[in-house]
Structure formats: C-alpha cells, structure tokens
Design brief:
36% helix, 9 helices, 273 residues, alpha/beta, Rossmann fold, seven-stranded mixed sheet
C-alpha cells in the first residue's frame, strides 16, 4: 500500500482550523521532542518542511531568536493561511512541495526538519535529495514520523473496514493511508541520500481520544481529508460509522487509548573538506 493516490484537494478551511486546535497536544508536542534532539541554537537558519498551521515553526523561531530565521513550507494553502497569522520578524511561510522546494537556494539552512510529514511523501528519495540540496554543509536533518511496524488501533480498524464490501469496490479504497516506513528502512533511505551520523529511535506513543468520533475527526484533519475522502459521500459516512462502531469497543472510562510508536531520526549532511 502506498500513498500514490493521496489528494491535496480534499483539505478545507474547517479541517485546517480543526487541525490547528487538535495538533497542539499531539503533533506539536512530538515536534518539540524532535527540536530538542536537533539541539537548535540561537542564530541558526531553519526550514520546517510540511509546517502545517505553523505551531512548531513559531516555536522554533523563538528558539533561534532574532539573529536566526525559520521558513515554513507546506503544500496546503488553507494551512499556510493560518500559519501566516503567526507574525514574527524571523518567521516566513510559503506554499511549496517537499519534492521540489522551489525558490529555496542551495545550502541555505543549518537545520531542516519534518514533523509528522515524512509518511505522507510519495517519493521519499526525491524529497531527501532536495532537502540535502538546501541544507548547509554539516547541517542537521530531523524527522519524526509514524512507524509502519507500530500502527495504532484506529489505523488497523480503518484498514479492515475499507477491505470489506462495498468499500473495497473502489480502486482507491486504501488511498490516503500514510506510507510509513520501518526504522531500518528510514535509516537506509537517509544513508542512501548521502546523510551521515544517522540515528533512528523508536519512541512509544499513546493518544487518548474522548470518543470514537473525536478520534476519526482528528485522523480526518491530520490526513487533510484523506481518511475516507476517496469514497462517495454516502459511503464515506457509512465507513466512518462502521469504524466508529469498532472503536467504541475499545472505550474505557478515561477514553479510547490508541497506542503506536514514532520514529525519531537525526542525521547530518557531510561537511565539505
């Protein structure tokens, strides 16, 4: 299964606003861990690839300070529109694609990071080549992404439900599900792209959702509409109801616990002699 049929056209202003709200306690916190691993310093030039609504980029801008700078790039215009409301002198947001990074000069950044983004990239070698191109000699790359060997219960339920009739009759029945990699695959991809000092850690992750509907809404916003967006509206509603019914069986007094793991990787572009 790949993300080759992933659509960027399914995002909406409502999904973007919802993502801004729900990502504060999830993707943003994971991103803070990634930035700690990267050890950002005052004055550094930083590129956030797949910046979404800009929460983590804004945080990074505060870390590097006025002598540093942060550029956030994302292909989803509604999310960049929200990000641009976060105004700092050293912070800029652009609509752009990780696979080409148009307009960004070579070796322009000391640090590049991708937080909750790598699993959406359909051509990872090409994206890594472009990232290496804009990363300065000796610069650092950080990636936080889902592990394909540790998917959560919602992802597993979604896969099973969409494999049934009538959902399976649609050729893109599993489209939009993230193209996750294993730790070994991520390490090999980074080394194959010419990065060195590659460290990949598997970090356990738990997400608590109050209801099945909240879990699905979070997944819908995080996947910019791709959770069931390939289906006709009536079938999409039915699929979400079927998924919610199975999720309800996991409910506890505290909510629905979804357990998985993230891959957190740090690597460097070799220094020029």
């Amino acid at each position: 299964m790949t993300s080759s049929a992933l659509s960027l056209e399914l995002d909406t202003p409502d999904l973007a606003r919802h993502y801004e709200q729900v990502s504060k306690d999830r993707q943003f916190r994971a991103g803070q861990v990634l930035l700690e691993r990267l050890a950002l310093r005052s004055g550094e030039r930083v590129l956030d690839v797949g910046c979404g609504t800009g929460l983590l980029a804004e945080h990074a801008a505060g870390v590097v300070g006025e002598r540093g700078s942060v550029v956030g790039v994302d292909p989803l215009g509604y999310r960049v529109e929200i990000a641009r409301r976060k105004q700092r002198p050293n912070l800029q947001f652009l609509v752009g694609d990780a696979h080409d990074l148009k307009g960004l000069p070579p070796e322009a950044f000391d640090v590049v990071y991708l937080n909750a983004v790598y699993h959406w990239l359909k051509d990872k070698p090409r994206a890594l080549a472009r990232i290496r191109h804009v990363l300065a000699s000796g610069g650092r790359l950080g990636i936080s992404t889902g592990s394909k060997e540790h998917v959560n219960q919602l992802q597993d339920i979604r896969r099973r439900v969409l494999a049934r009739e009538p959902y399976r009759n649609y050729p893109e029945a599993e489209a939009g599900f993230a193209d996750r990699v294993s730790a070994d695959e991520l390490r090999a991809q980074l080394e194959g792209a010419g990065f060195e000092r590659v460290v990949v850690d598997v970090v356990p992750h738990e997400q608590l959702q109050p209801t099945p509907e909240a879990a699905i809404e979070f997944a819908q916003a995080s996947s910019f509409g791709n959770f069931a967006g390939h289906l006709p509206d009536e079938l999409a509603r039915a699929a979400r109801a079927d998924i919610a019914a199975e999720l309800a069986a996991l409910a506890t007094p505290a909510g629905i616990r979804l357990t998985s793991a993230r891959l957190v990787a740090v690597a460097s572009r070799p220094s020029q002699s």
